[in-house]
Amino acid sequence: SDATGYIDTVSNQTLSFLLDEVICSGAESSVLECKHRAVGEDLCHAGEVAGVTCKPENISVSVRLRGGGHSNEGAVEVNYNGTWGTVCDDGWTKENAKVVCRMLGYQG
């Protein structure tokens, strides 16, 4: 598989969640194009961090990965109107992970 989604990737860190209940078909070019709860409206905690592991060939855009063991994995953060925030894992799927990986320049 080119992209793998996983959860609960960061602990003991202060997080500011921006996206919750993200549902992607896998064809989106941005995770913000996926269905999701209103930006900033979340019921998440530190144990609900969405993460991905991407197939290498990175080119960064308005999404980044934080706290992973390698540069191609970690907690998913998005930049929305100049503010970085963590994506909650509610409804997180392999298709969501593929979209994030494509946003980062990896194969989806």
Automatic annotation (TrEMBL):
One of its GO terms (biological process) is cell-cell junction maintenance. Coiled coil: none annotated. It comes from the Eukaryota. The keyword Cell cycle does not apply. Disulfide bonds join C24-C34. SUPFAM superfamilies: SRCR-like. Pfam families: SRCR (PF00530). InterPro entries: SJ_maturation_regulator, SRCR, SRCR-like_dom_sf. PROSITE patterns: SRCR_1, SRCR_2. Keywords: Disulfide bond, Glycoprotein, Repeat, Signal. GO terms for cellular component: membrane. Residues 19-55, 63-108 form the SRCR domain. PANTHER family: DELETED IN MALIGNANT BRAIN TUMORS 1 PROTEIN, PROTEIN BARK BEETLE. This is Neurotrypsin. It comes from Biomphalaria pfeifferi.
